[in-house]
Design a protein that fits this description.
Oligomer: single chain
Order of helices and strands: EEEEEHH
Helix content: 25-40%
Structural class: alpha+beta
Strand content: 25-35%
Number of domains: 1
Largest sheet: 5 strands, antiparallel
Shape: globular
């Protein structure tokens, strides 16, 4: 599963051939969550509030890049790194 961004101890990844709806996986320490690209809701899992707030800020800024990577993953193309939260 390619890592597309890393910031403040948070790792963002996306699987090839993953199920819909379009989403990404976020990891922070032993915590993991799956978030919808379209709604940014947590579909599965749980993250600490501070980490989730940073992920939501990052995803809001990069939603189009996340959609592009989702399309690339569906086509088995290399995913593009996405700039980390600063």
């Amino acid at each position: 599963m390619p890592t597309i961004s890393v910031f403040f101890g948070i790792v963002i990844r996306m699987y090839y051939d993953d199920h819909t709806p379009p989403h990404f996986h976020a990891y922070h320490g032993e915590h993991e969550a799956i978030l919808s690209i379209d709604t940014l809701e947590v579909l599965q899992g749980k993250l600490p509030k501070k980490a989730l707030a940073m992920i939501l800020e990052w995803a809001t800024e990069h939603r189009e890049s996340l959609r592009t990577d989702w399309t690339l993953a569906e086509q088995h193309q290399p995913l593009r790194p996405i700039e980390p939260l600063k």
